Amino acid sequence: MTRGLQERTARAFPAEHVRDDEGWWLHHAPSCAWWVGTVLPHGDVRRGELVCRVTMVEEFYAGRGAAARFQISPGACPAGLDAVLAARGYRRRLLMSLQVASTARVLQQASTGSLRVRLDDRPTPAWFEVWHAVHGTGGDARSEWDLLGRVEQLCAYACAMIGDDVVAVGRAVADTGWAGVFGMATLPEARGNGAARTVLAALAGWAGAHAADRMYLQVERDNIPALRLYERMGFSEVCGYHYRTAG
């Protein structure tokens, strides 16, 4: 399950350059958030060949003026890879939680809120403005917008409104029976009034209408308010994972 969900996530954030090297997905996404340009090392490799494979990855990124970064997910990566990277000086970074829920469960936990929600099949300037105001410190705005335009799967972009103003947003991407939830963002002045819950409920309704009976998301393990929200909405952790960054 973990490998499949992480690969669905990669399709929901298509890097500008992607190379599949025997199951290792190498992503290069200049000017986007750093984690978009990471390696998914999902192909099987014998332990004695790990160093050679890592060296190949390093050469790929060095040739593009970038540092190699690996996503390390239990059950999806070759055994021993994390230790090999640590021994080569890769720093452990960003502890994450991969969580899943049935779409029906999320809808069951949703309460009717007072905020109006608008759903679009592509990002609008208003959606992007709110997302970028909350999360846009990791990359160039134009590159992040272009990334959304490369997504080939069916998408929903939800905007929670107070009057005519967008105060919270989220995105869902349907992919082979699953809907990934991404880009959840609420403006500071709107937090605490159920805006994020309203967005998530709308995305669950969209997922159910598009044959996605299961949902998944990733959240930083130190984001306590988000963890509490997702628990209340019926999500539970499949595994924790982290990144290793060269240098």
Write a brief caption for the model.
This protein is an alpha+beta fold and 247 residues long.
Q: Supply the CATH architecture of the largest domain.
A: 3-Layer(aba) Sandwich
Q: Which shape, going by the Cα principal axes?
A: globular
Secondary-structure-based class equals alpha+beta
Relative strand content: 25-35%
In total, the number of domains comes to 2
| SSE run | HEEEHEHEHEHHEEEHEHE
Distance between the termini: 31 Å
Total of helices: 8
Mean of all residue-level pLDDT scores: 94
Poorly predicted runs are none
* Fourth-level CATH superfamily of the largest domain: Gcn5-related N-acetyltransferase (GNAT)
Quickly name the level 1 CATH class of the largest domain. Answer: Alpha Beta
Lateral arrangement of strands in the main beta sheet: 4-11-5-10-9-8-7-6
Any idea what the radius of gyration is? 18 Å
Helix fraction, binned, reads: 25-40%
Largest sheet: 8 strands, mixed
